[in-house]
Amino acid sequence: MKRLVVLISGYGSNLQAILNACRRGELPAKVVAVISNKADAFGLQRAIDAGVPAIPLPFYRDLHFDRAGYDEVLADVIESYRPDLIVCAGWMRILGPAFVRRFAGKIINLHPALPGTFPGTRSIAEAFEAFQRGEIQHTGVMVHYVDEGVDTGPVIATCEVPIYPTDSLQDLERRVHETEHKLLVASIWDVIGSQEAEK
Questions:
Q1: Is-contact 87 5, C-beta < 8 A?
Q2: Catalytic site residue 64?
Q3: Nearest Cα to 75, choosing from 43, 98, 48?
Q4: pLDDT band at residue 152, thresholds of 50, 70 and 90?
Q5: CATH number for the domain including 152?
Q6: Domain count of the chain?
Q7: What pLDDT does residue 164 have?
């Protein structure tokens, strides 16, 4: 049974998809901790409801954490749970080089865009705007390994998401999130399988 630590920043719908898949036996894995960089993230309540340790770890500037200091604290907390895989499921902070090197090959990220398009936090809105300008016909979702760039690591899986002329931004967001839930669970399964094959 693989041990997953899930990093979130908000509502936690992708976390819920992982928890549900684990509970139903669709993933040979267990979520052993959920960490949020926002203390009021609803996803923490999802973890509590599932009996999983829920850890708020906000970035307090008044504690004089710089980015590297925050990453070191985060890494130490994660390490204490002995994860086989760290899943960034709506995690909205860039992980620094030292953190990435410490967990090299064990961090994956879900990003609501296709490789090489719309990096950062406004991906869905930027895709919607690009569609309205006639620049694209669809967007998508990817899961990738985390490297030292922003949404640039080796791709594990992708899925295209159509955009329709009648869509509102909310319509597109809903369709993207539905795709995310399925692709993330499938990608975790693939990564777990590859880890087993390497043994």
A1: yes
A2: no
A3: 98
A4: confident
A5: 3.40.50.170
A6: 1
A7: 97
Domain of residue 87: give its range. 2-198
Percent of all residues in the chain with a pLDDT value above 90, rounded to a whole number? 85
Residue 180 near residue 158 (C-beta atoms within 8 A): no
Measured CA to CA, the distance from residue 94 to residue 148 in angstroms comes to: 9
Asked if 78 and 33 count as a contact pair (C-beta separation under 8 A), the reply is: yes
Strands 138-145 and 107-111: antiparallel
In whole angstroms, give the CA distance from residue 141 to residue 159: 5
Contacts of 165 (CB under 8 A, 6+ apart): none
User: Vertex 32, ends 27 and 38: CA angle to 5°?
Assistant: 110
The H-or-E segment that residue 145 falls in is: strand 138-145
**How confident is residue 64, by pLDDT bands cut at 50, 70 and 90?**
low
Closest CA to 91 of 186, 14, 188: 14
Residue 166 pLDDT? 97
C-alpha span between 91 and 107 (Å, rounded): 12
3-state secondary structure of 112: coil
Q: Which of 111, 144, 177, 181 is catalytic?
A: 111
* Tens-digit pLDDT profile for residues 5-57: 999 999 999 999 999 999 999 999 999 999 999 999 999 999 999 999 999 99
Strand-strand pairing, 107-111 and 85-88: parallel
